Amino acid sequence: MYFAEIVNGVVGYVGGGEDYTILPPNCFEIMTVDAVRPGMIHDNGYFREPSAVEVNAPYLSAFRADRAKFFADTSWVRERHADKIAMIIDDTVEYDLWLKYWQTLRDIPQHLNFDPKHITWPTQPE
Q1: Predicted TM-score of the model (pTM)
Q2: CA 65 to CA 122: how far, in whole Å?
Q3: Are strands 27-30 and 2-7 parallel, antiparallel or unpaired?
Q4: End-to-end Cα spacing for the chain
Q5: What confidence tier does 55 reach under pLDDT thresholds 50, 70, 90?
Q6: DSSP state, 34?
Q7: Digit-coded pLDDT (tens) for 59-86
Q8: Would you state the pLDDT for residue 21?
Q9: Region of poorest pLDDT, from 15-29, 64-78, 83-97, 105-119
Q10: Would the N or C end of the chain have less CB density within 10 A of its end CB?
Q11: Do the Cβ atoms of 34 and 2 come closer than 8 Å?
Q12: Using CA atoms, how far apart are residues 55 and 61, in angstroms rounded to an integer?
């Protein structure tokens, strides 16, 4: 008997060939090891290749978390700008650089060749 170990709906290991009376935990019996490979999706009793969206989902999630951290880590700039406006201090040139930086962060996923596995982050203004 051959089996595929399934973790969160994804094939993690394919093995077997010996006689098992009980399948290992999280495993499904399969007919042949040729048709099932690690990384495939177990979906309603069938095995299929993951879509590009499924492959990139963890990387996209990490990208969003990193980008949110960049925004959170620079929120002090907005507060400082508000204080300067209240004190009638003109910091328009410096603040415009930050606005462009934040917009660049927002625009990263719209780039034609966006790959959440390989991000080139913009440089923060000084």
Answers
A1: 0.67
A2: 16
A3: antiparallel
A4: 63
A5: confident
A6: S
A7: 999 999 999 999 999 999 999 999 999 9
A8: 66
A9: 15-29
A10: C
A11: no
A12: 11
The tokens describing 103, both together, are 């917009």
Q: Which two tokens stand for residue 82?
A: 């508000």
How far is 32 from 30, CA to CA, in rounded Å?
6
Determine the 3-state secondary structure of 22 from DSSP: coil
Classify 39 in phi/psi space as left (phi over 0), alpha (psi -120 to 50) or beta.
Answer: left
Which pair of tokens denotes residue 76?
């002090």
30, β-bridge pairs:
2
Which residues touch 80 (CB under 8 Å, ≥6 apart)? none
> What confidence category does residue 93 fall into, taking pLDDT thresholds of 50, 70 and 90?
very high
Name every residue whose Cβ is closer than 8 Å to that of residue 124 and which is 6 or more positions away in sequence: 70, 74, 101
Beta strand pairing call for 41-43 and 27-30: unpaired
